[in-house]
Amino acid sequence: MDWQTLNTDEDIRTFMNKFGYFYDSCLKEAHVLTKSFVGEDYGMAIDPTTSAHLFFKDKLGQFLQLK
Predict the structure, then answer these.
(1) Which pLDDT does position 51 carry in this prediction?
(2) CA-CA distance, 52 to 49, in Å (whole number)?
(3) What is the DSSP string of 17-63?
(4) Is residue 57 domain-resident?
(5) How many CB atoms sit inside 10 A of residue 54's CB?
(6) What are 64's strand-pairing partners?
(7) For the chain, what is the domain count?
(8) pLDDT attached to residue 31
(9) Of 30, 24, 31, 16, which Cα lies nearest the Cα of 61?
(10) What is the pLDDT of residue 1?
(11) From CA 25, how far away is CA 55, in angstroms rounded?
(12) pLDDT per residue of the chain (67 residues) written in tens, 0 to 9
């Protein structure tokens, strides 16, 4: 499956219409990823880069992944 980038209001409207405005859908999983960590010397490295993956499922069993 190819990723679909949403850049304009029209892109968003088309996307929402395609997926029925998430009617009868639920958020099944959410994953949040950061690049921050605690090193061996207990020092912290903070990286503001954060990404999230959201997985939705509807009553028909269709899945949608948002990144």
Answers:
(1) 92
(2) 10
(3) HHTGGGTTEEEEEEEEEE--EE-TTS-EE----EEEEEEEEETT--E
(4) yes
(5) 14
(6) 56
(7) 1
(8) 94
(9) 24
(10) 57
(11) 10
(12) 577 788 999 999 988 888 888 888 899 999 999 999 999 999 999 988 899 999 999 888 888 888 8
pTM of the model: 0.62
Backbone angles phi, psi at 12, to 5 degrees: -65, -45
- Structural domain boundaries, residue 33: 24-66
| Tokens describing residue 13 | 């409207």
Nearest to 49 by CA among 28, 34, 30, 32: 34
- The answer to the question of residue 42 being in a domain is yes
Residue 53 main-chain phi, psi, to 5 deg: -120, 125
Give me 50's structure tokens.
């954060």
Q: What are 9's two structure tokens? A: 């209001």
Inside any domain, residue 7: no
Q: Which residues of 14-23 are buried (b: 16+ CB within 10 A; e: fewer)?
A: eeeeeeeeee
